Structures are given as C-alpha cells and as structure tokens.
Amino acid sequence: MVSYTRGRKPTADLFELARNERIDANAPLAARMRPRALDDFVGQEEIVGPGRLLRRAIQADQLSSLIFYGPPGTGKTTLAQVIANTTAAHFTALNAVLAGVKNIRETVADAQERWALHDQSTILFVDEVHRFNKAQQDALLPWVENGTVTFIGATTENPYFEVNKALVSRSRLFQLKPLTETHLRQIMQAAISAPVRGYGDRNVEIEADAADHLIAIANGDARAVLNALELAVETTAADRSGNLRITLAIAEESIQRRAVLYDKEGDYHFDTISAFIKSLRGSDPDAALYWLAKMIYAGEDPRFIFRRMLILASEDVGMADPQALQVVNACADAFDRIGLPEGNFPLAQAAIYLATAEKSNSVMAFFDALQAVQDEPASDVPSHLRDANRDSEGFGHGAGYLYPHAYRDHWVAQQYLPSALQGKMFYEPTDQGYEAKIRTAVTRRREAQLAAMLEGVGAPPEILTFSPEESARERWLQRTIAQSGDAIGALRNRLLAGGPLERHSVLLDVNAGAGLLTWEALRRTPEGGVHALAFNEADHRALQEQAQNLNEVERPVVLHGSIADLARLVDAEALRFDAIVGRNALLGSVEKQAALAYLRDYLARDGWLALAETAPQYTQRIYALGDLSLLQPQLTERLIAAEEAIYTDTTDPLVNWDDDTLETALFAAFPEETRAGRVSMERIDTDMDVRITEAVIRRWFGPSLGKRKSYGERLAERMRPAEIRHIESWIREQLLNQTVVWRRRAALIQVASP
C-alpha cells in the first residue's frame, strides 16, 4: 500500500526513503517515464484535453469518485499518479490483486482519523479494481457513499460487468482508448531524450524503420513500446564513438509479436465476436476473415466460433440458402476430426460461405408467433425475451449499427473493418462453380463500401465517458431549460443538432444571453465543458448567479466580452472548441466576416459551427398590424416612411445587412470549408403569436431604457410629436390586449464537421 500527502515525503523512516529512491532509480523505463503533471500527459485528449471536465476537476482539486477503464498502457495508473501529485488530499493506493478487506478497513480508519484530526480528505486509488471480490467491494462501498474516501478505480475490464453496480452508479466512468502512432512516437522520443529518467545521457539513435516497427507492434500500448525500447537499449553496445544505434534487426528482436488485447471472459471477447457476426450478416468476407483471424490469433476456442456461425446460418441466411446450415455443420465436424492447425481451413471456409451467402431473416417469423402468444390475456411475457443492450446507457457500444435486413436486398454499405484497414481485401472469389455466381455481388458490394467510405459514412463516434445520474443537477437543468417557449426551444434543439455533440465535447455559446443554449449544452456534455460568452455585463452576472446552483467544476465557464476578445479570454489554455453555437451572435458586429473568421480560428480541427441570426430587415412592421384605412392618407405615408427608415440606416450594424450579405461574409470567412461543401445557410421564416399588452406599447413609445432608441424615438426623427401621439392612440385602440401574428426571418448558418 502506498500512502502519502502532497508536499510531504512518504510515511517511512530515512532508511525506507533511501531504499525507495534506489528502487525508483532502478525502476523499468516505463515506470520512470510516467508523467508527473497533467501537462506532460500524452493522449486521451477527449478526456483530459483543455476544457474537459476531468482536466478542470484535477486542476481545481475537486474530484468525485472515478473509474478509468481501458486497455493496458493507455494511462489509467498514470492519471491516478498525476492526481496524486496535484491533490491536497491524502492519496492512498491499493492493488486489488494484493489487498484484502483488512487493508480496506485500515485505509478507512486512517481516513477517518485524518479527517477528524487534520481536516484532510482522502483519495483511495484501487488498481485492477475488477480483481476485488464481492466482499471486498462491499467493504469499500459504505465509505465511498458517505464521503469518507473519494474512490478512483482502474480496470481493463468493462466496469458494468466486473465492478459492483453500486460503485459504478456513484462514479464517473472514463474510457481510455489505445494510443495513436503519433502519441507512441512522442512518448518514445521523450524517453530517448530525457536526461535523468530516460536515455538522454546516452547517445541513442533509432532508425526510422526500427521506430516504426516498435510502434506498430506495440499496438497502442505505451508500456509495450517503452519496454521494447528499454530492452533494445540495454542489450545493445555502443560503438567506438559512444553512439548506441537501434536498427530494425534489434527492434525486431526486442518485440517480436503483437499483443492482441483479448480476454475470453471479458468485454473484448464479446466485442470481437459481435464484430465478426455483424460482418457475416453484412456480407463482408474481408472483415469477417479479419475478425476471425484476430480471435484465432488470441487463442479463442474455434468450437465457440462454430456455434455462433451455426446460429447465424439459420438466423440470418435461413431460407435464402438452406445449404448454409449443412455447410457450417460439415465444417464443424471436419474441424473436430482434424484439429488445429489444419482445422483453420474448414473454419475459414464456413466464414467465407456465410459472408457471401444470400441473406434472409424469414425464420424470425417464429418470434412473431411468440408475440401472438404474448398478446393473449392469460400469457405472461418472460423478460428475457426482450432485447437488452449490454451497456447502451453508458458507453453505448453497438449504437449506430445498421441492420442489413432493414434495407433493400438485405444489405447496406457500412463500415465493418477498422478504419485503418478500410478497402483491404482478404478474400478474392474465383470464377469457378458457386463462387462464379457470387463474384459480381462481392465486387459490387466492395465498390459500394468504398464509395460509402469516401463519402464519410463510417463507424459512429464511440462514447468514451459516463456519469451517474445526479437528480438534483438534472432537475435544475431541466427546469432552467424548460423556461423557453416552444419556438425558441425548437431553435435551440436545431442549433445543438448542427453536428456531433458527444458527452466529452467542449462547446462555446456565443452571445449566451439568458442561457438558452448554455444549459441544454451543459446537460448534453457532462464530461466535457461549456464556455458561455456574454456580450454585456447584465447577462454575464445573471449567468454566473444561475451557475452557482452547480458544483464548481461542473459549471459553465462564463466569459464577458465580444467575439474579438476571445484571444484574451481563452488563448491562455490554447483551447479549441468541438462546437460553436450562438443566437444573434453576429447581430451587433460591424464586420461580420471578421467576426466569423475569429470564430473559425477557435474551432477544433473536426469542429462544427451553428448560428441563428435574426434578420431585422425582414422583421414584422408595426404599422402593418393595424388598419391603415383609419388613418389620414398623408399620415399613413409618413408613418410607413418613418418606420421603414429604421431598417435602411446604413450606420446601424443591426440593420445595414441582409441575408445575402451575411451569406457572402460566411463563404468568405470559411473558404476551405465552402470548397469542401461544408458551409450552408438556410433562411427560416416563422410566425409567432404575440399578445400586445400595455407594457409592450409603453416599451414601443416610451423612452429607451438602453443605448438604442425606442420605436417612438425613432419615429420622432421624421414625425411631429402630435402625429406620434395619434399613432400611439391608433395602435392602442386596435391592438391593446389582442394577439397578433408577428412575422420574422432568421438565417441559420452552419459549418459542418469534416
């Protein structure tokens, strides 16, 4: 058990400290190179990038219970150590393989004493938390619930199935993904150049193809690439000049076989067999062979795979090719006779046959019969007959899968292979026998798959985070959101649907006003972050007051200024937004193209923008609401001329533009996106029912309460006071306490994500 407080040495004597220092000096390279600070952490930008919730919580030292889930070498334990280095709380670490109930009780007792004597909280990190048995997890749960300890767990297994459901429900879940080649290259270079913890004190040179080999075989695992680099360096002698050169041959000896992440009882087992079955159902033999090879490479039992293929032969091929069941069964019998490795031939033959067979799900009629039985009054419906997604409420695995039977010819172009292997062909049908019949179909489907890939139709984005339901927070947000009317609410939803908005997205709301978009965006991005840019001090103050109802790290970041002030307000974090939305964000900008260019500079590479701009030139005219025949003709002409003059003032940025000039500015501000067909503008005309009350008429004709003149004051620039009083009486007689149709136009401008 490791236990220490920020700013203090570990709780051990001087001899123990000296021993720990020697251990650190002789630790493996992967342990020595662990980042100490958040800014040194490489990868997982969706979770700890600028503006994300977890980064804000770590920096503010306001952590709730967390679970980090992901493959080895992706940074779970490193993140915990970063937290240990930054928190003012006492940090205690346990390994679930070695710790027991006794250790948990000792940790809790120390935490209680520490809180009572020193008013200091405790963070308990449990590595490999899935190794805890039920008794150990139950022993920990009460102390997490009452806040005695803040729990942080790390696991390579899906926490929905391997961790106590009560612990999961009280924790934020963050899924870490395998690191990219860019990340691994950055980590490798840091290890070579680091003078103390790495090999900066040696003249280590690594050839480009050697580095490529280490990175490729590491398969997204930082620990694997560092272990291989360490083995290569420590087993290679320097030349006479003192240079230590790592060649491809040395690299190949240091890491010879790619480690495939696969657990026969875990999440990767279920995900891989799911990908295999969906590839068979989707008639993609290349993807089917890839996933089959991955399972066999990882040591999956071929009999399990045959059982799943036998099911598919009836469920998805069925009557379209009744021979499929016989073929798969014969292949399974052949496998039992000959075993491995030759048994791979009938195994692959069965997979290719099913992937290229015609598809029909007519046997699903059996379930229609079950439905009929269910509808009988005396029947009970077993709950297990209903389809239950494994973890759709958390990571949402399987969401976005297109069911081929829902499309014509029981096939639809979609991505089955990993993105890096799209277009790769493993199976080439010949012109002999049965294969001659399917050759054309396979070729046609491959062409459609390639076209879909080029058009950007790929796998849907994966959900990487999950937060437990917080009823108080959710009720507050829902109540705040519900204050907008139906029309405004529809506009809000349309703006926020302008592109992919993930739970971990970072969004900027421009001209946030009363928070119409802010609060809904905050609800949709619980592990991301929302920045609200208020143009005036009153809105800024009101948003801050409303945000006080939320936990500090969950609040939106409320900014005060104009679009041009973004450089001053957010550049310090080098922050870029996944989405920028706004309502009337450009209305007061004299140079709308310049304002749009500012916003473009703050979009992330894959970001999107959606703005709704009211076009005052097309707004409802007040004179058109009344019966003009009741006025003298000359007064009618003067009234119309005076009101129209309001909308032709070339010095007023609110009205000196129309939707055509806005569209021109949009295309000029986003030239590359326009050429790519990602920029659009839609004109939306809406009618709203408005009740004309005494307060409305007073606002029209009374003195202005702000910088802009009131309607009556603008009329006074062209009409005499007596005429204005007459117009006010005319409007009051006809419209007071009446509901009128108010017409207006908005321009919806969008820049789609690539």
Number of helical runs? 32
- Name the poorly predicted regions: 6-12, 377-389
Provide the CATH topology of the largest domain. Answer: Rossmann fold
Strand content: 5-15%
CATH class value of the largest domain: Alpha Beta
The SS-based structural class is alpha/beta
Largest sheet: 7 strands, mixed
What CATH architecture of the largest domain would you give? 3-Layer(aba) Sandwich
Helix fraction bin:
40-55%
What is the total tally of β strands? 16
Task: Give the termini distance in whole angstroms.
Answer: 48 Å
Number of domains: 5
- What is the overall pLDDT average? 79
Q: Can you tell me the CATH superfamily of the largest domain? A: P-loop containing nucleotide triphosphate hydrolases
* Coarse shape: globular
Order of strands in the sheet with most strands: 1-3-4-5-2-6-9
Describe the protein.
The structure is a single chain. With 754 residues, the chain is α/β, with parallel strands linked by helices. It has five domains: 2-175, 3-Layer(aba) Sandwich (Rossmann fold), CATH 3.40.50; 181-254, Orthogonal Bundle (Helicase, Ruva Protein, domain 3); 273-375 and 389-454, Zinc Finger, Delta Prime, domain 3 (Up-down Bundle); 485-615, 3-Layer(aba) Sandwich (Rossmann fold); 619-652 and 694-736, no CATH class. Helix content is 45%, strand content 14%. It has 32 helices and 16 strands. Strands 1-3-4-5-2-6-9 form a seven-stranded mixed sheet, sandwiched between helices. It is globular and about 105 Å long. The model is unreliable at 6-12 and 377-389 (pLDDT under 50).
